[in-house]
Known about the structure:
Nucleotidyltransferase, domain 5; five-stranded mixed sheet; alpha/beta
Amino acid sequence: MRENDFTKILDWPGYRVYRHEIHEEDKTMRLWVRRKRGNRWLECSGCGRKLLDYHDCGEREVRDLPWGEFRASVVVEVYRVRCPDCGVKVEKVRQLPSKAPYSKRFEEDVGKACESTAARQVARQKGLAESTVRAIDLRYLERWEESRRKPPLRQMGVDEIYKGKKDKFLTVASNLETGEPLWFGKERKEETLDEYFRSQLRSGQRQRIEAACVDMWEPFRVSIESWAPQCRIVYDKFHVIQHANDAVDEVRRAESFRKGVEMRELVKGKKWLLLSRWKNLTRSQRGDMNRLFQLNRRLFKAYVLKESLERPWDYHYEGAMLNYLQKWIDQLRWQRLPSFQKLGRMLLKHLEGILNYCRTKVRFGVVEAINGNLRMLVNRGRGYKNLRYLLLKAKRMAVSNTEYVALHAISKAA
């Protein structure tokens, strides 16, 4: 095979292969490349200025994509230029994105493999250390983040996820329209969210935020109102239902202790049934629930109250939603359920944020979906010390899923 054939197969724009070396026993191949005659302009890696004169020249060997069973490496002639502004700098080579001994397309291949596979498995496939694979993946994601167009932020979500006893909570700010996380902050204090508004958003960007979906954590509300006063705060439906589930569980525990050992045996194992929605239960599970409700009316009333609290978010008119919530709260007076009376007082306190859903529709499920993706990434990667790396992984996952759904829908329509 001639050197010109190696140049065509290698396909490095502006470079030609002038020497090659193949070892069949080791299954390795080395290619020596240099610039083509028409490619004489050198680009300064500091400022990007185009220059003709160079300071000196050296060689640099990088690993490239394999050629069949052969592991390929490329030895590149790299120049150092004397820039009037930056001094002596190494030229910028498009195929060499970093100082690491890997070509750009090799790093892209590793990065794409890491999107669907754990880093330790990719390291085993490529014959690299796991730390090296994570470093390559981080550089790949950084280049992807720099090249993409940032979508505008009109509806944001703020929530926290529990990382463990050591790191406690992680505050997550996300874009509800694109379904991608935007920023991570340690702990869940007011100062944490203040740092996001201060360091990540300009004044104009903060003014364009129309709505923020949050839970009922007071520090988040105070921070948003101080930095984006025009923003409507919408309280997350799933957190309200979670409080209702906690109220049902509190009734269950109180009744098990009030009725004694006999009721305890009956209620045992029914916690997750009581927290499930009626339409998701099987026929046998509904039969168990009916037998339980026949013996204990308080559990029945608590379950019906919890199920009926799902309905307010089906309303589109603010007055109808308010009327329903008022009737729901009024009926708590005669139910003798302290946990639900406490829930009713909490709903009255946060009534404005609940009603804001009728004024500005937001996607409640996006925040929970992002949290689920983050937990999956943390579990698959066995933890992340670098929050920037975790953020980029979650962003890439969200954007890739969006693109897949769009292509899938187009193919079905065709």
